[in-house]
Amino acid sequence: MLRLFRRVITRSYGYPAILRIRENSHSNERNRNVHFRRFSQSLAPEEKTFRSPRASIEIPTTSLSDYMFTQFAKFGSRKAIVDDATDTVYTYSQLEDLSRKVGSFLYRKGLRKNDVICYYGTNNPEFCLLLLGCASVGVVLTTANPAYTSGELKRHIEHSGTRTLVTIPPLVTQARETNISDIIVIGNADGFQSFSDMLADDGKYFPTDITIDPHEDVVIMPYSSGTTGLPKGVMLSHYNVVANLMQLQNAHSMTKDDTNLAVLPFFHIFGMVVTMCGTLRDGGILAITPGFHPERFLNAIVEHKVTHLQMVPPILLFLIRHPAVDKFDLSRLRYIMCGAAPLGKAVTNEFMVKRNLIVRQGYGLSETTTVVAIDNASITTGSVGPLLANTEAKIIDPKTGKSLARNETGELCVRGPQNMLGYLNNEKATNEMIDEKGWLHTGDIGHMGDNDCIVITDRLKELIKYKGHQVAPAELEDLLHNHPAVQDVAVIGMPDDRAGELPRAYVVLKPDISLHEHDIINYVKQNVSDYKRLRGGVEFVKEIPKSPSGKILRRLLRDQMSM
């Protein structure tokens, strides 16, 4: 169970952001002094702060499940979800009824408020029922990448404090190897309880006395590497998610006649909140596919008469350049949003010319629930558009912290109701990410244009993004440091037109040891998920450039790579 303390930061719009980490030994006196100092600082005027050009909206104080169920009530027996793989269909009224049965089942099992359930699987309709079922009884849902090895999954389970794991038949072997005792399978697997038992629950155990504080209680906990380091649990409150859904609706909403194709993974915050919750909030139809498979993806667009798509740059490149695309009628598509990694002007323009479709960029992080900025109908190519409603930003000099003016380049910092509560059990990382005035330091470099549109040009963070997936250099370095032949190592991202970045390792071997680069590549391949492999290659070097404090000077390695 999550047992957390809270730290309230008053922000300029008057809403609280609760940063909650495990209880520590700070004295009450020290806490009072810290709170007073931060409150005083928050009242001080700040130079060159940019506010959203969009009108502010009122955000209700409600749980995620109550918010979504209220929306579902408007659409009744209308089709809500269709499973492309099985043709299973759920209506909006069924979604609420079955979600409550899931909540009742979990309560019957003994799970209580703030207990954690982990989902480890691909996209399917049951994920939506699990998310809302958990939310309805205060249980926290964390998500694990289905590409995880059993070792990676075990770390995730142990760090998050997971009590119950929900998975799918193809991943049962990896799930079993984590030694977690309570496993539920969506489908059939010998010796394991089936998810269908949840849907058959009589609902009698659904609690009526649970009090959820939307501002303080965590509802979902995806994992992110943040700016650096190993994956960390991002604590997102009910209020965070509801706020971001309303901000997105304010910028763009679907109609009940629209269909969205969920090709982005639900374990990722982009697919979970923007695609899944965003579509169902507006009464559209959500067609679900287990993952990206070229022919299935194109067939689904045609078969389900898809009008909306959220995607990452590699899928956009596929739509531009793959010869099979021309064989399919994509004429019903009218809205495409691309995010998770930067999309350059050249690729954007190439797509819009070849497919006669406008693609809008969005920008956000797991730590900001999803989106911070998104393009308008009149897009600015190469930018991620203006800030969402109720959101403000500033650009700072990374060295001095001084706020910068328009068209001056620096680190983007954002503040809004979508900012996370904090990282689970990691006060140090939380404080490094969110400062005393509530500004979340994104680690991305860019500027605010004259038209209120943000342009992202680079990033401070060391995180590598391969096809939209986050790869933490520290994780691969830690793994390689365990190799008996490795003396020292550094991992960076090598630019790639199709994938975004490819992980590349610089390795110092121990004295008198000879090794081939394929030995290192295969070692990593055997121990990590597919997207973390060293596709950028391996280079053996005499030493890793470091600062006097011991920090790896990755910029020198990148400069060396470009020579």
Describe this structure in words.
This protein is an alpha/beta fold. Among the domains are: 4-42 and 50-57 and 390-459, Luciferase, domain 3 (Roll); 464-562, ANL, C-terminal domain (GMP Synthetase, Chain A, domain 3, 2-Layer Sandwich), CATH 3.30.300.30. Helix content is 29%, strand content 25%. The strands form 6 sheets. Strands 6, 7, 8, 9, 10, 11, 12, 13 and 22 form a 9-stranded mixed β-sheet that branches. It has an 8-stranded mixed β-sheet with strand order 5-4-15-14-16-17-18-19, sandwiched between helices. Strands 3-20-21-23-24 form a 5-stranded antiparallel β-sheet, with no helix packed on it. The protein is globular, with a radius of gyration of 23 Å. Residues 3-45 have low confidence and may be disordered.
CATH class of the domain at 4-42 and 50-57 and 390-459: Mainly Beta
Distance between the termini: 52 Å
Residue runs with pLDDT of under 50 for 5 or more positions: 3-45
The fraction of residues assigned to DSSP E strands is 25-35%
Short description:
This protein is α/β, with parallel strands linked by helices and 563 residues long. The chain has 16 helices and 29 strands.
